[in-house]
Amino acid sequence: MAGLADGRLARLPVAVRFWDGSTLPAAGAPDAPVVVVRDRSAIAHILHRPDQLGLARAWVAGTLDAEGDLETALGARENLTGLTLGTRERLALLRDALRIAGPRILLPPPVPEIEARAAGRRHSLRRDRQAIRHHYDVSNRFYELVLGPSMVYSCAYFAEPEEDLESAQERKLEVICRKLRLQPGERLLDVGCGWGSLLLHAARHHGVHGVGVTLSEQQAVMARRRIAEAGLSDRLEVRVCDYREIADGPFDKIASVGMYEHVGRDELHRYAAILEGLLRPGGLVLNHGIARLAPHAPAPDPFITRYVFPDGELHPVTDVMASMQAAGLEVRDVESLREHYALTLRRWVDNLLAHREEAIGEVGAPRERVWHMYMLGSAMAFEEREITIYQVLAARGGAAHGLPLVREGVPATG
C-alpha cells in the first residue's frame, strides 16, 4: 500500500493495528494514536464504499476504532484531503484486501441500523420531520447526560474559557432575550424550541408569553413537563409542528436558535419571508445558527448527513442576511460566536465521556460513537475556522423597532 496515492497512505501520523495483532507503524511517531481494525468487515465497508461513508460505517459499527488521542487521529484527515485512487490503485488495494481478509469481504457488510435513509422530496414537510426525529427523538435522558441541566443544544456564551457550562448557557439565554428587548406581556415565538429552555428563561425573567415549535415529539413531551413544573402552562405553549405551519401571528419577537441549519439553501428566502410575516410591524427576530466561512459549498460529508444531521446545510452568513433583507427585514446587528461553540462542544464531549456507560445504555454503542466523533470533530472545525456561528438580529419595518443607539446591556454580565 505504501506506493499508492504518491505514498501518502504510508505517511499517516497514526499507526494501524489489525485484528490479528499485525501493525503498520506511524511515520516517525512511535507514540502516535493507533487506528484499530477490529474485524474484517471494516475492510469490507471500505472496499464497498471507498470513501468517507465506508469509513463512517466501519466506525459506527465499531469495527474501526481508535486508541490513544482521538483528536490526533482525527487530524490525520488532512493527509487524505483531495486523495483519489485510480483504477490500477483500486485493483491493487483489492488484491491486498483479499490477501489480508479473505474472499468474505467481497460480500457487502450490513449497514448500521442507525444510518438515516431519507425519503421523499428534500425539505418537504414529511422529509424534514424524518430528518429531525432521526437526530432528536433518540432519548431525552441521553441529551440530559450530554447537555447538562440547562438542556440547551446550542452554543453557550462564555465570559472566560474556564467558566462552567451552565453559567455560560444561562448567559446565552439572557443575551438572546436582551438583544430581542423582551418586555413583560410580549408574545415570543421560539422556532425550534428544543426542550423549552429559552421559553422558560424568557417567561421567568422577562415576563413574556411564548409559543415554541419543534418537530421532535420527545422534545415536546419534556418541554411541556418542564413548563408545567415551573407553573407556567398558562403563559407558555409547545407545539409539534413545522415553522411553515404556524398561522396565528403576529408575534412581538421571534427567536430561531440552532434551527435554520435544517432549512436548506433553496428554502432560505421562504424561511425569512415566513418569519417576517409572523412579526408585528417593528418586531424583532434573532437568528442564531452555524455558518460556513468558505464561499463555495463543500462536498457533502457522508458521516454528518447519514448519521448526525440528515439534509442539514450550512451557508455563509451573508446568504442568511440577504434572505432576511429580501423579505423586508432590516439587519441591525451581527455577532460571531465561533470560539464560544468550540468551548461548548468540548464541555459536551467531557459530559459524554463522564457518563459514557449510561449513555450507551440509553442509545446504544453505535450512536454514542457517532456523538463522540461528531462533537469532537465539530469542536476542531470551529477552532480551525472551518465553520462558525452567528447571531443575526433584524427588525420588521412599519413601526419603530425600539433598539437603542448602542448595545446597551448586551452581552449580559451575570
UniProtKB/TrEMBL annotation:
Q: Which GO terms describe its biological process?
A: lipid biosynthetic process; methylation
Look up keyword Lipid metabolism and say if it applies: yes
- Enumerate the Pfam families for this protein: CMAS (PF02353)
| Molecular-function annotations in GO | methyltransferase activity
The Polyketide synthase-like methyltransferase domain covers: 142-402
Keyword terms of this UniProt record? Lipid metabolism, Methyltransferase, S-adenosyl-L-methionine, Transferase
Family that this chain belongs to: Belongs to the CFA/CMAS family.
Name the record gives this protein: Methyltransferase domain-containing protein
Q: Which organism is it from?
A: Baekduia soli
